[in-house]
Design goal:
The longest helix is centred in the first third of the chain and has 28 residues, at about 70-100. The protein has helices spanning about 15-30, 30-40, 40-55, 70-100, 115-125, 140-145, 190-195, 225-230, 240-245, 270-275, 275-300; strands spanning about 60-65, 70, 105-110, 130-135, 150-155, 165-170, 175-180, 200, 215, 235-240, 250-255, 265-270. Helix 1 (about 15-30) packs across helix 2, helix 1 (about 15-30) crosses helix 3 and helix 5 crosses helix 11. The protein starts with 15 loop residues before the first helix and ends with a helix. The protein folds into three domains: about 15-90, Arc Repressor Mutant, subunit A (Orthogonal Bundle); about 105-165 and about 265-300, 3-Layer(aba) Sandwich (D-Maltodextrin-Binding Protein, domain 2), CATH 3.40.190.10; about 175-255, Periplasmic binding protein-like II (D-Maltodextrin-Binding Protein, domain 2). With about 300 residues, it is of the alpha/beta class. The strands form four sheets. A five-stranded mixed β-sheet has the order 4-3-5-12-6. One of its GO terms (cellular component) is protein-DNA complex. It comes from Peterkaempfera bronchialis. This is LysR family transcriptional regulator. InterPro entries: LysR_HTH_N (IPR000847), LysR_subst-bd (IPR005119), WH-like_DNA-bd_sf (IPR036388), WH_DNA-bd_sf (IPR036390). GO terms for molecular function: DNA binding; DNA-binding transcription factor activity.
């Protein structure tokens, strides 16, 4: 079979969204898993990839009923797309930084992590500085820093973005969230063995610890959605201890899980932002406040 060469419009511009979609498929070699990662419908992802192929005049993937593989042009595009998206993110950070009021920091925070003390201490240490705080979810905690939406973010591990600068703050133990009437609430703690056959709720495509069996409940993106599913009896959920303390409700009980790997709470930023004096002050303030709080907790326990 002879393939006709496609007509390539030299004036066609590369769409960064299509490149991002392409890289997700190239990483997973699976359209369904890539669509889950991107939080888009699979048909929309397939259309975007076909449109990119039409823009470039090449076939990027070989597809059959059993597997998806990269073609030579697809392999070449992976490297180029990575560089283009990195440059675009850097350009966005530079432009946004130029448009900000000097000494203003945009801070991202995760549900359950209380940042008030750090922000108040920072504004005392850096008079005249302004702080904008925005909430971020698990699926954007890295991207929000990398693309410049926030300057510094409180994050919970694990993370996959190797270009971010990470400042560890404290360990956040895992606890299990159960419906208030669940039989395991009769115990002061719940073991990993107790959870082995329990239906466990997880964020879609999230890097969570594989404990128990999947509940089958899909479409969970936020902590509120996860806890609502627990209360409705769709399954149990491992959540950070800080989130459990923040989200207290009568229809949910929390129990510690000895032996479960803790999350690590940390600050994430980019190398460019880390050079700004106000960012350095903010990070050192967060470290100092965390150390003070840890010492106070230790003193109270003695």
């Amino acid at each position: 079979m002879v393939r006709r060469a496609r007509h390539l419009d030299p004036s066609a511009e590369l769409d960064l969204r299509k490149l991002r979609y392409f890289l997700a498929v190239a990483h997973h070699l699976n359209f369904s898993r890539a669509a889950e990662e991107l939080l888009v419908a699979q048909p929309a992802l397939s259309r975007a990839v076909r449109a990119l192929e039409a823009d470039l005049g090449v076939t990027l993937f070989e597809r059959d009923h059993h597997k998806v593989t990269l073609t030579p042009p697809g392999t070449a595009l992976v490297r180029e797309a990575d560089m283009l998206l990195s440059r675009a993110a850097a350009a966005r950070r530079t432009v946004q930084a130029a448009g900000r009021t000097p000494r203003t920091l945009t801070i991202g925070f995760r549900p359950g992590i209380i940042i008030t003390d750090v922000v108040q201490q920072f504004t005392k240490a850096c008079p005249g500085a302004a702080v904008n705080a925005i909430r971020i979810e698990w699926d954007e905690q890295e991207a929000a820093v990398a693309d410049g939406r926030v300057d510094i973010a409180w994050i919970r591990t694990p993370i996959a973005h190797g270009d971010l600068l990470i400042t560890p703050l404290f360990d956040d133990p895992e606890v299990v969230a159960l419906p208030a009437a669940h039989p395991l609430t009769a115990y002061d703690s719940v073991s990993l063995a107790d959870l082995a056959n329990q239906p466990m709720l997880r964020y879609d495509a999230a890097p969570e610890h594989e404990i128990g069996r999947p509940s089958g409940k899909r479409g969970i993106r936020t902590m509120e959605e996860k806890l609502e599913a627990v209360a409705l009896g769709h399954g149990l959920a491992l959540v950070p201890e800080t989130a459990a303390a923040y989200y207290q409700r009568p229809d949910i009980a929390y129990r510690p899980v000895p032996g479960a790997s803790p999350y690590q709470v940390a600050l994430a930023t980019t190398s460019d932002t880390a050079k700004r004096p106000e960012a350095q002050i903010f990070i050192s303030t967060a470290v100092a406040v965390n150390a003070r709080n840890a010492a106070q907790r230790g003193g109270a326990a003695r």
